[in-house]
């Protein structure tokens, strides 16, 4: 396998520096969160704004970037496509063309050479797995290699709207940080309310969502339950189900990637699937690929 067929060169230095900034600065904010919250600097307004923006941007990734744009789990009209692309961009996990190309490449080579973020690329010893966990969780984000979009995302490259959303990623990054601060300032009618909302609903919210998403790449390919037949080490990790909006029911997803619902058993809470169901009921999306009992039974591992 030639790496040239998978990669499209290196990330430019300005973009690479920006990636480092958006990894390091929000993480430092998260480390500072506990002492800052100890007696001051956190209000119910901050909590509410952080929860609302977390939910909105997380669903932008799970429903939009992942289930729709990457896997085509349903169909949507132009306005919904653009709305989902913008919402996903405000999670600050990279421009849409990069995100989708990386994730399609991940599925094409899952847990094998060519996978951009498998924790199993370096072996199975304790040291190799520690290195693999770091790579899957964060190390690959800091790599300058860019996935070949012409190979893995030609449909989005051909879409003028998606190219525009991709090019305006910096704008949506600014909006996702400034808007919560503006809301906090207006609700409390104070500059301090704007500052604390920027910290909690901006920086801390972004970094928490980053690490939840990355945990699906790392933790959900290392430990957990595997009730369905997949050709890789994808697993279900139930403690992440709520924060990931259902993405941590990862085993079924890799067994049936285009399925709109990842948590298919009755007790598996899948918030993203419920949102897609609501969109379908409202007539905003159509042709949803829901799981069927025969399909699920066929994918189940024999016990």
Outline the structure in words.
This is Stearoyl-CoA desaturase. With 303 residues, this protein is mainly alpha-helical. It has one domain. The chain has helices spanning 3-6, 13-37, 44-70, 78-89, 96-108, 126-137, 149-152, 154-157, 160-167, 169-188, 191-218, 250-255, 271-282, 293-299; strands spanning 7-10, 75-76, 145-147, 285-286. The strands form two sheets. A two-stranded antiparallel ribbon has the order 1-3. Strands 2-4 form a two-stranded antiparallel ribbon. It is globular. The mean pLDDT is 89.
Helical content class: 55-70%
Q: What class, by secondary structure content?
A: mainly alpha
Number of domains: 1
Uncertain segments of ≥5 residues (pLDDT<50)? Answer: none
Number of strands: 4
Pfam families: FA_desaturase
Membrane topology: Multi-pass membrane protein
GO cellular component, one term: membrane
Keywords: Fatty acid metabolism, Iron, Lipid metabolism, Membrane, Oxidoreductase, Transmembrane, Transmembrane helix
Structure summarized in a few sentences:
The protein is mainly alpha-helical. It is built from 14 helices and 4 strands.
Features:
303 residues, mainly alpha, two-stranded antiparallel sheet, 4 strands, globular, membrane, transmembrane, iron, lipid metabolism, oxidoreductase
Give the SSE map.
Layout: H1 3-6, E1 7-10, H2 13-37, H3 44-70, E2 75-76, H4 78-89, H5 96-108, H6 126-137, E3 145-147, H7 149-152, H8 154-157, H9 160-167, H10 169-188, H11 191-218, H12 250-255, H13 271-282, E4 285-286, H14 293-299
Antiparallel strand pairs: 1-3, 2-4
Helix pairs in contact: 2-11, 3-4, 3-5, 3-10, 3-11, 4-9, 6-11, 10-11
